[in-house]
Amino acid sequence: MAQRSSGKRFIAWAALAGLIGGAVFLATAEVFALVFARAASPILAVGGFVIDIVPQPFKEFAIATFGENDKVALLAGLGLAVVIASAIAGILQLVRPPLGVIALVIAGALSTAAIVTRAGVQPLAFVPPVLGTIVGSFILVLLIRRLRAWRGSVLPATASGGKTADAPATPPITKPTPTEAAKAKGAKATTADGTPAPAGIDRRRFFVLTAIAGASAVIVGVASRAVSMTVSSVESIRDALKIPSPRSTVTVPEGAELDIPGLSKLFTPNKDFYRVDTALTVPSIDPETWRLVIDGMVDQRVEMSFQDILDMGLDEYAITLTCVSNEVGGELVGNAKWLGVPLRDVLKKAGVKSGADMVLSKSVDGYTASTPLSALTDDNLDAILAVAMNGEPLPLEHGFPVRMVVPGLYGYVSATKWLTELKVTTFAADEAYWTPRGYSAEAPIKFSSRVDTPKIGEAVAAGKIPIAGVAWAQSVGIQSVEVSIDNGDWVPATLSAPINDDTWVQWFMEWDATPGTHYVAVRAINKNGDLQIEDRAPIAPDGSSGWQRSLVRVN
Ligand SMILES: Nc1nc2c(c(=O)[nH]1)N[C@H]1C(S)=C(S)[C@@H](COP(=O)(O)O)O[C@H]1N2
Ligand SMILES: [Mo]
């Protein structure tokens, strides 16, 4: 009868109680994370841990599927996992106590482990998840106890037997409380005369606590996350930061930027600049307390402050950055003006010992990159520590306050953001973040060319239209770009005036487009006279190759 179906309903309410317990756990941890350690957010720490351990093919799948929203997708997945696990914990706590609390404690222990093993974490970072576990478990126990009381008052015959068997098995609720007393009375009252009134009271007690705990968790959790994200004090420190004028600036020659709709800007605005990193939340580092340590195979360990870097005197450099994950024709490449100091001068301060062949750069978040020492000491290569990007201090997500930029090497082996240490070492002795994850220890950029307009898959009107794009061969320079239409001859495109060999150039060609579907292919030749590699290669282990060929529909 009705009582049987309402028995099932208690399972659903137990799942809700579990959700509330989980939400209270997370909200408590978030609010104490504000006080004790910003990095102590359980979800973010577990997310970071997942990023570090998932197998490479899965990571590539995630980037291919979600693009730069890969982190949002990860968080959504984690959120779903939390919802399911909390609901199960609630049900377990009702039917097999104290398994629900045990499940919550295990989740708490795992997230505490994820938090305290994060790089650069504060010593008290274990406090928020531990407090979260305690408060979350307490609320879960309380809610299930009230639910049990309600169930006992409604289902005296079927469930109260289970209830009395369950209750002693639950250490946290072995001590009788007013709630249990009320529950026992309620059960008797209902059995005796079938009056629903006591059940009404027990039910109300359950829902009042559910509502209060749920609402508090949502308000506290959302508010704490908002505070730690938006009222980032480092963001305002950055806004107020005055970077000294550079001693020299980049000369942009006349004709360096072509005026063609749809063509990439010569300098990629910071807000449009691609972002690739393993940081689930952007590290916020106060330049006042920031230090760069240069150690390893050096004559003397050197520590530099942000001011020490500025005091070396800044120069402006134009360098195009490229990600190893950039597919042929892809968007993970951008050009910027950087203010910085040469890495060779920084390394000179410590004095590099002979025998070293690599610099392992480390980020505050534990990320590392292995850069050949020669790329950082070469007098003819502008490998720099950068403090500014396109006329402003580095944006937080691009490495504030100091990052590396090395022309000619993919970002993962050279462009460490939120830099904290340069360890002079050898490839034999040390390994960077991506090396055991399927990427080469050394990775020069494979020079490439890209069509920006007409956009792939976008129909264009017949008539004279420009085909235009960019091409890059950092540290060598682009000599020419050639275009072939419908497998016809390779025709040289017109190049923009190059700024230097470290930046991309723009190219264009006027095309008399006739109605139909056409095939546009592009390839570059570098200043060594090498032709861009035609053979297709995937991004792993050391960058994609191939000529971009696209279909263009003309109406
Ligand atoms: N700390 C840190 N630095 C990092 C990375 C990272 O994951 N963590 N990713 C690297 C990679 S793979 C690239 S391509 C560049 C991208 O720099 P951007 O995000 O400023 O474009 O940063 C590099 N520096
Ligand atoms: Mo990258």
| Domains, number | 3
Q: Calculate the terminal CA-CA distance, rounded to whole Å.
A: 69 Å
- Could you estimate the helical fraction of the residues in percent? 25-40%
Biggest sheet: strands side by side, in what order? Answer: 2-1-10-5-6
What structural class do you assign from the helix and strand content?
A: alpha+beta
- Ligand catalogue: the ligand Nc1nc2c(c(=O)[nH]1)N[C@H]1C(S)=C(S)[C@@H](COP(=O)(O)O)O[C@H]1N2, molybdenum atom
Write a concise keyword list for the protein shown above:
binds the ligand Nc1nc2c(c(=O)[nH]1)N[C@H]1C(S)=C(S)[C@@H](COP(=O)(O)O)O[C@H]1N2, 3 domains, transmembrane, single chain, OxRdtase_Mopterin-bd_sf, 39% helix, molybdopterin cofactor binding, membrane, 555 residues, Immunoglobulin-like, binds molybdenum atom, Sulfite Oxidase, Chain A, domain 2, alpha+beta
Describe this structure in words.
The chain is α+β, with helices and mostly antiparallel strands and about 550 residues long. It has 3 domains: about 180 residues, no CATH class; about 150 residues, Oxidoreductase, molybdopterin-binding domain (Sulfite Oxidase, Chain A, domain 2, Alpha-Beta Complex), CATH 3.90.420; about 110 residues, Immunoglobulin-like, CATH 2.60.40.650. It is about 40% helix and about 20% strand. It has 13 helices and 18 strands. Strand 7 and strand 8 form a beta hairpin. Bound molecules: the ligand Nc1nc2c(c(=O)[nH]1)N[C@H]1C(S)=C(S)[C@@H](COP(=O)(O)O)O[C@H]1N2 and molybdenum atom (MO). The site of molybdenum atom has 7 residues, from loops. Ligand MTE binds next to loops.
